[in-house]
Design goal:
Elements: H1 10-40, H2 46-73, H3 76-86, H4 90-96, H5 107-110
């Protein structure tokens, strides 16, 4: 990763965010499907749910760094363009700033497209 203490390159940060968020998108959908079953008390694959939670939390931690740097250094117009490029909602952007882990208890508020 580049030195993000100075003003970062918009294209580098944008491409990192887009790439990681695109990788997260199908995992979020799979997690939501399994978590709904778990919350409803229906049969589900607990190992797969735990693996998805672990992977999503890992990806969110990686993304959080880039999201915080982008929020600090880029203008509102650049942030809007970046979110559109990543096909990410404002609520998804805000949820990536949070440090809370994805679990069946808190995950539905953190998983947002």
């Amino acid at each position: 990763m580049a030195d993000l203490a100075s003003v970062p390159d918009f294209e580098m940060v944008a491409s990192c965010i887009v790439e990681r968020f695109e990788h997260m998108r199908p995992l979020m959908s799979q997690w939501a499907d399994l978590a709904r079953l778990a919350v409803q008390g229906l049969p589900h694959d607990r190992a797969r749910l735990a693996e998805l939670e672990r992977r999503l939390n890992q990806l969110r931690a990686e993304l959080r760094t880039f999201v915080l740097v982008a929020s600090e250094h880029f203008s509102d117009g650049q942030l809007t363009a970046l979110r559109k490029r990543a096909r990410m909602s404002k609520s998804a952007w805000r949820s990536l700033k949070k440090v809370r882990p994805i679990t069946t208890r808190s995950g539905f508020t953190l998983i947002s497209f």
